[in-house]
Amino acid sequence: MLAWTITQPLCTVSSVDELVFEVTQEGDGGFVAECLSEAIFTQADSWDELRNNVRDAVRGYCFDKTMPGHIRLHLVRDELLATA
Q1: Is 71 part of any domain?
Q2: pTM recorded for the entire structure
Q3: Burial class of residue 48 in the structure, from the number of CB atoms within 10 Å of its CB (0-12 exposed, 13-18 middle, 19+ buried)
Q4: Residue 46, domain extent
C-alpha cells in the first residue's frame, strides 16, 4: 500500500516564529504590506489601520495553522536625491 504525504503551503512560523512584511508608502499616503515568505498582502490608509489589517490577514491565512509569535513590519522608503 502506498502512503502519500500532501505538502501544502503553510505558515513558516512553526520553524521561524516570525513573519516579516515589507511595507511601502504609496504616493497618496496609504500603505501596502507584503509578507516576504508567504502569500499575504494587505493595504491601509494609515499606519494603525495597517497594523490591524496585517493581523487580520495573518489570522485568515493561518486559520488552521500555528500563528506566528511575532509579525515584523519593515517600512521601506525609496527617496531619490539630486546631487547638484
Answers
A1: yes
A2: 0.76
A3: exposed
A4: 27-76
